[in-house]
Amino acid sequence: MNYQEVEKFVKSKLNNNNNGHGLDHALRVVKNVKLILREVDCQKHICIISAYVHDLIDRKVTNDINHEIQELTSFLKSQIKLTNRECEHILTICSTISYSKNERLTSTEAMVVQDADRLDALGATGIARTIQYSTATHSPIYIEGDKSDDTAIGHFHAKLYKLPDLMNFQVSKQLAAEKIELMKLFETHIISENKHNEEHLH
Ligand code: ADP
Ligand code: NI
Known about the structure:
Blueprint: H1 4-14, H2 23-37, H3 44-53, H4 65-79, H5 84-96, H6 108-119, H7 123-136, H8 152-158, H9 163-166, H10 170-194
Helix pairs in contact: 2-3, 2-6, 3-5, 3-6, 4-5, 5-6, 6-10, 7-8, 7-10
Nickel (II) ion (NI) is lined by residues 21, 25, 29, 54-55, 117.
């Protein structure tokens, strides 16, 4: 399968995204899918195409989900020549893997794409994307004690630190644990840089 057409389509759709869900995110999720597929056996082309398109029908990327579902369906059927069944499978993956939806996954392919997407929420990239998102929503980087979605560091606690335990495969769990280490270190630096040193206050 030649994925160039898919990449072109996704690029045209994510061109203007400024909240951490741009083409660069989609390409890293594709890369993560390929890493996981070294250890997990399932339908590779379903995983890869889903990784490319997974955010196109998410409300963080579009205000008109129904319209995007139609456009994506018609692209997959007429341009990529997928069967109805393959197309349905991909749409199901896209609509079930989101953290906030907390839905039960129905295929190995969905589990692979979910882990790949979640890995891109962690590590150096995860830190950078959280700042991108916080900028887009005008949220502060850090408020002492905040562990909610209202601040970037709060989001680490509210969601990101929980991801390693939620991974579907051992290979992703291991990769996630390594990426969390950097984030914890980053957090300790942010905390100390935000501490007011009494000597400087007079
Ligand atoms: P999912 O696709 O699993 O629902 P999201 O699209 O909600 O995940 O989040 C993707 C990324 O966007 C997060 O990993 C994080 O970097 C950023 N993000 C989401 N919500 C917030 C928030 N409240 N504060 C900062 N960053 C956020
Ligand atoms: Ni995503």
